[in-house]
Specification:
The protein is an alpha/beta fold and 349 residues long. It has 13 helices and twelve strands. Helices cover 44% and strands 15% of the residues.
């Protein structure tokens, strides 16, 4: 029968098991310094006696609450859901408690979340910053002793730690692939101007077009859409306007690409034949969409895991120089770009 005893302490557990208090403490924190068999022995015992660790007391003793905030601008997006899963798994392995926020690019919501983290004495913050964020918006959290790692988006000229994709290279890969297939009328669809992600991808789009000897300017970027419905509407509007129609669309992300493909189908156009479409993210859905989507990997799992590693190092070494990583992407070619069709046509010529 399980015994419950509110008076249980790490000291009493240590005495019962014949080990040191430090061993119990390290075992409960899943420390690699403790043998797996000892960790399991401690865990089995605390489960039997019903011991619950007092985080407040632990915080007073160690100066750490083991609370980590994680904030995104769109928590329901498959890319961010995948990233959150990877982040949560890595954090929970060592017993951190996670506070999650979806700020929807609202600076006020982000500020309230950061203030709440300060009130709870959070150790760290992993954040995809809201549109318009400045480094000074996060200074109070740092001054309170918190560590910050930016993910997905950065802040221009920041000294904060971050792990992001090489966004210009993501879009350069996508656009260059379309150019290599022979397309000359290409538009970029989606993304919010003013974010490092969207601006970086636009830079990559321009670089690829220039390298291919093609003209592109701000009119070549249909900005705004980040999800299916908005991109579906944007493509329908484009095809009913008098402007020249593109033969290829380089999309800001996979959701934008899915919306574009559904609009093209509604218009009676065949994706991969009449219009080529490429996305960025390489979500699971990209492999089973119709047609399967050519897309550039966006490293969701790697970003989440790397952010946790950087955060832990920052907490252990507060004076460490800025740790800023840009992950290299690669492209997965499928049917939505019409690659096989384009290659066969080239060979026939």
């Amino acid at each position: 029968m399980t015994r419950k005893n509110k008076a249980l302490t790490q000291k009493s557990i240590a005495e019962a098991l014949g080990v040191s208090v430090a061993t119990v403490s390290l075992a409960l924190r899943n420390s690699p310094l403790i043998q797996a068999s000892t960790k399991q022995r401690v865990r089995d015992y605390v489960a039997e006696v019903g011991y619950i660790q007092n985080r407040a007391a632990t915080a007073l003793r160690t100066g750490r609450t083991r609370i980590i905030g994680v904030g995104f601008h769109d928590i329901v997006h498959p890319f961010f859901a995948e990233m959150l899963t990877a982040t949560e798994a890595r954090l929970s392995d060592d017993g951190e408690a996670i506070f999650v926020n979806s700020h929807d690019d609202d600076l006020g919501k982000q500020a309230r979340f950061v203030a709440s983290l300060i009130e709870h004495g959070a150790d760290g913050l992993i954040l995809s910053p809201a549109l318009g964020s400045e480094e000074r918006d996060l200074q109070a959290f740092q001054q309170a002793g918190g560590a910050i790692v930016l993910i997905v988006r950065s802040i221009p000229e920041t000294s904060l730690d971050f792990v992001i994709n090489d966004d210009p290279e993501c879009m350069r890969l996508a656009t260059s692939h379309l150019i290599d297939l022979g397309h000359k009328r290409i538009v970029m669809l989606g993304g919010k101007p003013g974010t490092t992600t969207a601006d970086g991808r636009y830079d990559g789009f321009l670089a690829a077009m220039s390298a291919g000897g093609l003209h592109a300017d701000r009119e070549s970027w249909i900005d705004g859409p980040s999800k299916r419905l908005d991109s579906h509407t944007a493509i329908k509007h484009l095809w009913t306007s008098p402007s020249p129609k593109p033969t290829a669309i380089a999309c800001f992300n996979d959701l934008v690409a899915f919306g574009a493909m559904s609009a093209l189908a509604d218009l009676g156009l065949e994706v991969g034949k009449d219009v080529a479409v490429v996305g960025i993210d390489d979500t699971d859905e990209a492999q089973v969409s119709f047609p399967p989507l050519t897309t550039v990997t966006n490293n969701a799992n790697v970003i989440g895991q790397t952010a946790v590693e950087i955060l832990r190092r920052r907490l252990a070494e507060p004076e460490h120089s800025p740790m800023q990583e840009r992950l290299k992407p690669y492209i997965s070619v499928r049917q939505s770009c019409g690659a096989e069709r384009a290659v066969s046509l080239h060979l026939e010529v």
